[in-house]
Amino acid sequence: MTEPPRTRNPFATAVAAPLFRPGMKPHLAAMDDPSAFFWTAAAAAAALALFAGWADARRARRRDVDRPGWVPWQPILILAMIAAVVGGALALMV
Following DSSP, what letter does each residue of the chain receive, concatenated? Predict the structure, then answer.
């Protein structure tokens, strides 16, 4: 049996350049410095804690008392604050 003829890919480039030259190491900042990862996680948790605090305050000031919503913002706020503190402490230790 013969193979069907291959069609040329119009999106392929003429020369495929390698991603890295031989002997060149890729730079991965999160892998080189573990504290950067922990600072990023602490910042994300702090941002989540700020948002959860805002949402909890907004929920406390709602006009219709019979419609409280379904997201438990207070436990999310507490867990996010704990995660931010632990992430910051780990970043300082590493």
Answer: -PPPPPPPPTTS-SS---SS-TTPPP--HHHH-HHHHHHHHHHHHHHHHHHHHHHHHHHHT-S-TT---S--HHHHHHHHHHHHHHHHHHHHH-
Tens of pLDDT along the chain (94 residues) come to: 667 666 666 665 555 556 666 666 656 555 567 888 899 999 999 999 999 999 999 988 888 878 878 899 999 999 999 999 999 999 999 8
Structure token pair of residue 50: 């700020």
CA distances from 57 to 31, 63, 72, 74 (A): 38, 12, 12, 10
pTM exceeds cut of 0.85: no
